[in-house]
């Protein structure tokens, strides 16, 4: 057994050594920039000070974690993160599917390509510019308020309102990503056999029945894969947009785990504590991903790996 | 075969066009608004409320102020440097990794693939990442914005899937001729993958162009700020003072508005210019990426 293994190792090395040399820089990249920080995350269980370094800092067990679970922020951060994610999922996930279905019905090629070009466009506008635009439009003299006033509403400094924050966040995310997100569904739709539609029409199925019995089953695997990917990131709300859009007057609804890590870690330099919060978050994310993947495997035979 | 469309289908079609036209307007109007406002006369603009359809009292004043701001030029140059060095290194590293993972019958392929794919789903988090950069003395340099981001694992998977579709017989023929893996990678695989490499340039380019967070986290010297960080100062922190000196206090606010809009246009136009040319590659990239393991 052992001899056989040695033999195949030697054979593999003789045949593939240059391939291993070739992949070496890639491995080094992952070790240095991905796995080294993963090792560095052990400071979550230590009282880390830069002077002592990672190894020499004292172990303190789960103290950082219990401190987070007992802090007044814990409940609010968890709630805000989950709610923002769930709203994003409920409204943001179906939007590109619906857009793709609508685009797929367009017969005029030029109109279709115009619609695609323009709906993809916002994806390429930088987040700084998008949030800059939102900030300006939300001023009492801004475009949003001009429209609200036109409709007979009252002018408000929209980004100072904690109650409106999630709506603004989710709506602007849909605006930016709906077109780009539809590409993958459009390509899935283009793969549906047109004979299926013809057969359905001969059977007297209208548009709605064709959608239910032909189109949706055909793109279901794509939808499920995308849904698993999304579910796995449910607690992984990015901090970039939050950092650009929130302010102390909206922390109540806007502050999420990752933006809190940023403030406690990079601004207040409470390294161990912020790392512990991050680690807690990463573990939950990973668990969510495993769980959704398992569920999907069970019910639809579609999975990530 | 042409099936005659029923009444219901025609109504649906009209409804569909109206709905899509609405979506087009919503996607396009904010961009149009910013463009129109940037060419407007600042006083006329600040007096105006409501929908803006075209520039009010055409003026290039705001653009003159933006181009006179040395920080914008500085930011452009820094971003250009990160883009050039970044894209070259990104393509080099990503294609090496993709080539390795696209080979068959390699003993350590599976463990290496797991090692790489695992980073898509788990990471050490923001703070250890930062401390790692600090430990490697990459904070305070533009290399700190390039080296840690050389490989995006999603892009690596897309590229590998594309490499796998190249006929194995080409590789075998080259091996019989005595070509090593470096030769096959550089002289067979890469030249045959120009389209997907263009997609990679687009993906990496856009993400480098748009990134700002790590620059704001690790760079203290303002001379080294990339464009987006400068933009953030101007747009978010309302830092237009350097561009409004010599303007009466009463006009400051309205001028500041048009300057902001002009800055947005100046910083967005390069992306919008390359965008239509690259559009045909988009679908290709996402489609390859959609093919699962």
Look at the structure and give the mean pLDDT of chain A: 89
Structural class of chain B: mainly alpha
Main sheet characteristics of chain B: none
Provide the spatial order of strands within the biggest beta sheet of chain A.
Answer: 1-2
- Following the backbone from N to C, one meets helices and strands of chain A in this order, namely HEHEHHHHHHHHHHHHH
Name the assembly state.
Answer: heterodimer
Counting structural domains of chain A, the number is 1
> What are the segments of chain B in which pLDDT stays under 50 over at least 5 consecutive residues?
none
Fraction of residues in H or I helices of chain B = over 70%
CATH class of chain A: Mainly Alpha
Strand-residue proportion of chain B: under 5%
How many runs of DSSP E, i.e. beta strands of chain A?
2
Classification by helices and strands of chain A: mainly alpha
Q: Report how far apart the termini of chain A are.
A: 30 Å
Poorly predicted spans of chain A = none
Report the major sheet of chain A.
2 strands, antiparallel
Mean of residue pLDDT values of chain B: 86
Highest-level CATH class of the largest domain in chain B: Mainly Alpha
Question: Looking at this structure, what is the CATH superfamily of chain A?
Answer: MetI-like
């Amino acid at each position: 057994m052992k001899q056989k293994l040695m033999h195949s190792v030697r054979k593999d090395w003789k045949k593939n050594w240059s391939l291993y040399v070739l992949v070496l820089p890639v491995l080094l990249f992952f070790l240095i920039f991905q796995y080294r920080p993963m090792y560095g995350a052990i400071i979550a269980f230590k009282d880390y000070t830069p002077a002592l370094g990672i190894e020499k800092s004292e172990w303190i067990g789960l103290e950082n974690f219990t401190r987070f679970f007992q802090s007044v922020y814990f409940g609010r951060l968890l709630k805000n993160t989950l709610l923002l994610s769930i709203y994003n999922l409920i409204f943001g996930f179906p939007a590109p599917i619906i857009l793709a279905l609508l685009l797929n019905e367009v017969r005029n090629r030029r109109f279709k390509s115009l619609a695609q070009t323009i709906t993809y466009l916002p994806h390429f506008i930088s987040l700084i510019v998008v949030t800059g635009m939102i900030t300006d439009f939300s001023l009492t003299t801004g475009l949003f308020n001009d429209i609200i006033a036109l409709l007979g509403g009252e002018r408000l400094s929209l980004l100072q309102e904690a109650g409106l924050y999630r709506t603004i966040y989710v709506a602007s995310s849909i605006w930016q990503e709906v077109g780009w997100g539809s590409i993958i569904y459009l390509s899935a739709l283009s793969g549906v056999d047109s004979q299926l539609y013809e057969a359905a029409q001969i059977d007297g199925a209208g548009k709605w029945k064709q959608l239910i019995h032909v189109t949706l089953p055909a793109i279901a695997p794509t939808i499920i894969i995308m849904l698993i990917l999304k579910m796995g990131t449910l607690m992984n709300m990015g901090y970039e947009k939050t950092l650009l859009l929130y302010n102390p007057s909206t922390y109540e609804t806007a502050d999420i785990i990752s933006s809190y890590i940023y403030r406690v870690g990079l601004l207040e330099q409470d390294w161990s504590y912020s790392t512990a919060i991050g680690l807690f978050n990463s573990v939950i994310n990973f668990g969510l991903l495993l769980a959704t993947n398992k569920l999907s495997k069970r019910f639809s035979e579609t999975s990530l790996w | 075969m042409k099936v005659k469309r029923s009444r219901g289908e025609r109504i649906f079609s009209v409804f569909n066009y109206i709905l899509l036209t609405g979506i087009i307007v919503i996607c396009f109007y904010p961009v149009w608004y910013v463009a129109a406002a940037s060419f407007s006369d600042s006083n006329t603009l600040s007096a105006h409320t409501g929908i803006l359809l075209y520039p009010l009292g055409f003026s290039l004043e705001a653009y003159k102020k933006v181009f006179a701001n040395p920080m914008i030029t500085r930011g452009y140059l820094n971003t250009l440097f990160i883009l050039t060095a970044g894209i070259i290194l990104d393509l080099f590293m990503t294609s090496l990794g993709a080539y390795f993972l696209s080979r068959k019958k390699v003993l350590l392929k599976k463990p290496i693939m797991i090692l790489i794919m695992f980073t898509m789903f788990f990471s050490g988090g923001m703070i250890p990442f930062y401390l790692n950069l600090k430990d490697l003395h990459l904070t305070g340099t533009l290399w700190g914005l390039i080296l840690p981001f050389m490989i995006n694992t999603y892009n690596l998977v897309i590229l590998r899937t594309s490499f796998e579709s190249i006929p194995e017989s080409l590789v075998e023929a080259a091996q019989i001729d005595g070509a090593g893996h470096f030769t096959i990678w550089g002289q067979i695989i890469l030249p045959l993958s120009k389209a997907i490499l263009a997609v990679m340039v687009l993906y990496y380019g856009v993400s480098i162009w748009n990134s700002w967070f790590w620059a704001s986290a690790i760079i203290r010297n303002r001379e080294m700020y990339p464009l987006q960080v400068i933009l953030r100062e101007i747009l978010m922190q309302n830092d237009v003072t350097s561009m409004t000196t010599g303007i009466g206090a009463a006009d400051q606010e309205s001028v500041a508005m048009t300057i902001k809009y002009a800055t947005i246009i100046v910083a967005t136009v390069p992306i919008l210019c390359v965008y239509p040319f690259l559009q045909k590659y988009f679908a290709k990239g996402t489609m390859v990426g959609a093919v699962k393991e």
